[in-house]
Design brief:
By secondary structure, this protein is an alpha/beta fold. It folds into two domains: 27 residues; 269 residues, Glycoside hydrolase/deacetylase (TIM Barrel), CATH 3.20.20. Helix content is 43%, strand content 14%. It contains twelve helices and ten strands. The strands form two sheets. Strands 1-7-8-6-5 form a five-stranded mixed beta sheet. Strands 2, 3, 4, 9 and 10 form a five-stranded parallel beta sheet that branches. Strand 5, helix 7 and strand 6 form a beta-alpha-beta unit. Helix 9 packs parallel to helix 11. The chain is globular. The N terminus is likely disordered. The structure holds zinc ion (ZN). The site of zinc ion has 6 residues, from loops.
Length: 322
């Protein structure tokens, strides 16, 4: 009898019907309805912001630190599933190393501005010439952006550790020992912070609890990693990047985005803070957006009080200034 009842329930669930007294994924109960404060804190405190680490001053007595960061996701950002990895989508990624990076490097190198390029490890072998070009100027840092831009939330602890070990081995093979980490799409799993400690990262740039540098806490203990925080409003992707199907996002007028970014920079300049911009060569590399970035740099330069640093340079200054 029980087996008959179970078969009826399973049949109803698979048909997408509501079974009285039970829930389906379509009608999953929101756990916040009965969430207690201790339970909320247990979730929140797994990874949370600790003390602020904004220094009294930036090098040279400058009033604000500026970090220009470029995530060279190339094709890998479109390879999450076979359905996504279409020739059309992959070609959007290819624009980054093929056209975007050269324009970015010319702009930065002409102004002697150091930047941070985040690379998934596979990029080192998929686009070796681009990596050589980034390293050639001697100004720029290369940070770690996953083994192949994988979503760590989908991985077991063992799989995530294996991916990081393989990725860092690929970095080591070309003489790179990244000290700064940025997770793909800024996602962390339960295990990510522990792995960053295990593999010796000093800095992360994936979280958003502040717009000033801060210490990352794991439970009640400092994790020993300085967060150099990001924000979606300071990322070119949501403004400009159409998804594979057309246009659930972007494109926006670069002047509108420039106004948003200038406003954030001016605020950080007044507050003595940190301005971290996240860009993607496949997005910012379009001419209208390169011009927008150029105009932003003009604005920053005219402020007269900005110090440009790679994320590790900024992180080192933050740590020694404590
Ligand atoms: Zn990315």
């Amino acid at each position: 009898m029980t087996q008959v009842l179970l078969a009826v329930i399973l049949a109803a669930c698979s048909a997408g019907e509501r079974v009285p007294g039970r829930t389906t994924s379509k009608h999953r109960r929101d756990p916040r309805a009965t969430l207690s404060v201790p339970d909320a804190l247990q979730i929140i405190n797994r990874i949370h912001p600790g003390r602020s680490m904004v220094p009294v001053s930036w090098p040279g007595g400058k009033g604000v630190a500026v970090a220009l960061t470029f995530d060279l996701d190339a094709e890998l950002v479109w390879m999450r599933s076979p359905e996504k990895a279409t020739p059309s989508n992959l070609s959007q990624g290819q624009f980054g190393p093929r056209a975007g990076v050269g324009r970015i490097l010319r702009l930065l190198d002409a102004r002697k501005i150091p930047a941070t390029f985040f690379l998934p490890a596979l990029t080192l072998e998929l686009h070796p010439d681009t990596v050589v070009a980034i390293r050639q100027s001697g100004l720029h840092e290369i940070g770690y952006h996953g083994h192949a831009h994988e979503d760590v939330r989908t991985l077991s602890a063992g799989d995530e550790r294996g991916a990081m070990a393989r990725g860092l081995a690929m970095f080591a093979k070309v003489g790179l020992r990244p000290r700064v980490h940025r997770s793909a799409a800024w996602n962390f799993s339960e295990n990510t912070l522990g792995l960053l400690r295990e593999f010796g990262f000093l800095f992360d740039s994936s979280l958003m609890a502040d717009d000033r540098p801060y210490e990352i806490m794991s439970g009640a203990s400092p994790a020993g990693i300085v967060e150099l925080p990001v924000d979606w409003s300071l990322d070119d992707w949501p403004y400009f990047q159409a998804d594979g199907a057309g246009a659930s996002m972007g494109p926006r007028n670069p002047d509108d985005v420039l106004a948003i970014w200038r406003g954030e920079f001016d605020g950080e300049r007044a507050a003595g803070g940190l301005f971290v911009l996240t860009m993607h060569p496949q997005v910012i590399g379009r001419w209208g957006r390169i011009r927008m970035l150029e105009r932003l740099l003009d604005h920053i330069d005219h402020s007269g009080g900005a110090w440009y640093g790679s994320l590790s340079q900024i992180g080192e200054h933050v740590k020694t200034a404590q």
